[in-house]
Automatic annotation (TrEMBL):
The gene is rqcP. Coiled coil: none annotated. It comes from the Bacteria. This is RQC P-site tRNA stabilizing factor. The keyword Transcription does not apply. The keyword tRNA-binding applies. It comes from Robertmurraya beringensis. CDD domains: S4 (cd00165). InterPro entries: RqcP, S4_RNA-bd, S4_RNA-bd_sf. Associates with stalled 50S ribosomal subunits. Binds to RqcH, 23S rRNA and the P-site tRNA. Does not require RqcH for association with 50S subunits. Keywords: Protein biosynthesis, RNA-binding, rRNA-binding, tRNA-binding. Key component of the ribosome quality control system (RQC), a ribosome-associated complex that mediates the extraction of incompletely synthesized nascent chains from stalled ribosomes and their subsequent degradation. RqcH recruits Ala-charged tRNA, and with RqcP directs the elongation of stalled nascent chains on 50S ribosomal subunits, leading to non-templated C-terminal alanine extensions (Ala tail). The Ala tail promotes nascent chain degradation. RqcP is associated with the translocation-like movement of the peptidyl-tRNA from the A-site into the P-site. Belongs to the RqcP family.
Length: 89
């Protein structure tokens, strides 16, 4: 499954176009490698997504083409959530 579609279906990011923009800015990694919107994700991959001042790392548990709101959280498990300190010059 494409990265941008997974982010939308799992509701980590609400819209697919926004998921594409975030990945094009280099704010998403898959297993430590920088990812594009068209990158393929599979079960067991670890995604690190940077949202402003925090990095959320999740592990993909299952892939579905569609999901209801209640099922979306079952698609991944939260590994860690860390705050990023900006370097002040």
């Amino acid at each position: 499954m494409r990265l941008d579609k997974f982010l939308k279906v799992s509701r980590l990011i609400k819209r697919r176009t926004l998921a594409k923009e975030v990945s094009d800015q280099g704010r998403i990694t898959i297993n430590g490698q920088q990812a594009k919107a068209s990158s393929t994700v599979k079960v067991g991959d670890e995604l690190a997504v940077r949202f402003g001042q925090k990095i959320v790392t999740v592990k993909i548990e299952k892939l579905q083409e569609t999901s209801r709101k209640e099922e979306a959280a079952d698609m991944y498990s939260l590994v860690k959530e860390e705050k990023v300190e900006e370097a002040v010059e």
